[in-house]
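Section: Multi-chain targets

For targets with more than one molecule, the full set of components is provided together so that the structure can be written out for the assembly as a whole rather than chain by chain. Components appear in the order listed by the source. The example entry contains two components.
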Amino acid sequence: MHTLITLAQLTAVEADQETVRKLLVWATLLPLVSSIMVLFLGTRYLKKQAGTFACVVMGISFACAILAAFKFTSGNMESFTWKIPWIPIYMGKDGASWLYLGLFCDQLTVALMAMVTGISLLVHIYSVGYMEGDKRYERFFCYLSAFTFSMLGIVTANGLMQLFVFWELVGLTSYLLIGFWFEKKGPQLACKKAFVMNRVGDTGFLIGFGILFVQLGGKVLVPAADGSMFDAIAAELGGKAAIMEHPPMWLTVAGICLFFGAIGKSAQFPLHTWLPDAMEGPTPVSSIVHSATMVAAGVYLTARIFPILTPAAHLFVCIIGLITLVMASMMAMVMTDIKRVLAYSTLSQLGYMILGVGSGAYIFALFHLITHAFFKCCLFQCSGSVINMAHHQQDMRYYGGLAKKMPLTALAYGICTLTISGIGIGSFSIFSGFYSKDGIILGTYNYAHELGGLGSLFFWGPVIVAYITPFYMARSFALTFLGKPRDQHLYDHVKEAPKTMVVPQLILALCAIISVPWLLPWEQMIEVTRETLVNKNVTWIQGIPTHAEHHHIALPLLFGLAGALMLAVGIWMYKDGFGKAEYLLKKVPGLKLLYTWALNKFYFDHLYDVFFVKMTKCFAAICNFIDKWGFDGLVNVAGHWTKGLAWFTGAFDNKVVDGLVNGAANSARAGGQALRTTQPGRIRVYVSLLFVGLVIALMFAMTLVTG
Amino acid sequence: MTTLALFEPGLYHLVGVSIALLAAGVAVILTKRNAVGILMGVELILNAAGINFVAFNNYVWDNAMDGQMFTLFIIVLAAAEAAVALAIFLNFYNNFDTINVDQADELQG
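Its structure, encoded as tokens over all components, is:
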């Protein structure tokens, strides 16, 4: 009886898994279908309906993802995997084996699926308004859907090979989207830069992949039967605890190399320069790249490789995250281009996430990834609305007082500003950003405490940036929407954005408020992680706080109020333009220097220009020189020799060989010429010659006879 | 040999006639522009040869008839030659509207 019940339960579980799996596969593939259909039918049949069509398909995809998420969470389902053979490969004596197309589903997968499809849907709707009248309107939706598909592929992928394929697809589609207006110089350069920077990171990813392959053999290519692929690799090496205690050297290197892929995609410190430049693309692209898709991929990967990260790799990840976090927030304070402020803000928030993963609070990092996706997408859409209405003027120095003209956009922007600032009272806030960011900071507190000494930077860095963030966000809000218009002409022309643009903004703003703490089972996920990690004796992760715990900590109180204070300071300073800031720049010594440094993006572009571009050019020039005078010289000498020889043989041929032939011909002609006079054709001449000859012959005969 | 014997008909006289005929024939061939004239010259030369045959046969190999036989052949040959030559001249005339052999210099080298 007992067995029967278990069996019945088992089949029920399997049936549920089947449903979720199908929903996820549909959610992943529908954007691809939409992309292909728009590509082939777009210009001829769909035309202006292409946008609506893509939105509808995206909507179905979103519905599938949401259904899967609810089914998964409400059913309290375990994570499961699924795979089908994809490409046959041959390895060793075992005969044929396969590369699999797999699907891995756990809490994180369904949450990210819902988030990516949801945001992508809103961006699609927003694009209908934003891209209206563009001459490649249909093509834009083709790219956008393909981009979403690639990201969904990364999220669902089980197996390194499959992950890498979608990883590269994201790179490709982002290239297409950033360079969508390729007639202009800026987008051309930006999309090339994004692509090349990502390739640098991907090289690291491939190297890490290769190390795993060499060390563990072909099984890294096969999706794990249980858990994600990196869980399986960690299990192979004795679990996270064993890895933390006795980290193999190669695993550290492999982890760091794989993380390099994330550095490229998530635009972390050494490869961060592409992200602000990617602002050249259409604003919907910025809003989706900066929230749900591309940059999220890097954080997602880092979270997935978490099980195989060694202590040294953790430290590396944290350092990269910290540098990005602090650097980008400083740059965000001085930029005047509204989209660039947001771009550096994204960099800074990504730094938070990476730091969160590195310091072990990776559940909060993913939490922040999702909350950030909503408010950053909203912020970009708002900035896009402003830019679109302001005739593509992106500089905040020409804005001011726009709240009166576009109240709904200002409202959405304001809500998101509060959310990103993490405003809250005590342990309570209606803004989702408050929970996620504080979770990360508490995680870093544990890590810093564990490291001690200089390690405390990992705590103080995020804390200081938590004060800077409200300031620069308030600055951008105040400069754009408050005070007096600084460009009256521009102000007169601005009006509220069309409905297709405003509605997605408001929905996103709403999500940024209510959002995830109450909709998704974060408490449950945190509890699960906590249990598994604590059980594995990973000491410094024990401190991952649940909400229940961190409610009692004084820090959130500090952040909530300090955030509000900095917000007020920011608004007060920039409400009436740049006057107060300039005054401050003049009065405080050293600030000007820092300002210039940050305004020039810490001279990273210059540095890369000198070190990579110029060096490469210099090297190319040297190679050119060697080629020209070394190799070409040899070739030219050989060429001259051949030419000389050819001249000689030519002369020989012309003068000697031809001379012989011509000489023979000429002498024959001359002989003929001489002899033809004896053939006059007159009978008398012949006859007389005949007789003369006869006489001579007779005389000769007679001399012979007479002796 | 006496002076009288000199006038007696003998081999030398016959050969002399033959030479005269030959010279006349050659002269006719060399000087005549008319093809028929040239044919006449050729006849003279042939007859000179015939006289030679007969004369030498008579005076050197007296009891043989070979020379006479040759001469008969030469006469026949001359007739045949005249027939052929006249046919040639007819054609010649058809082609050139004349029988002046100086006009026929197409073999000129």
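The two ends of chain B are 54 Å apart (CA to CA).
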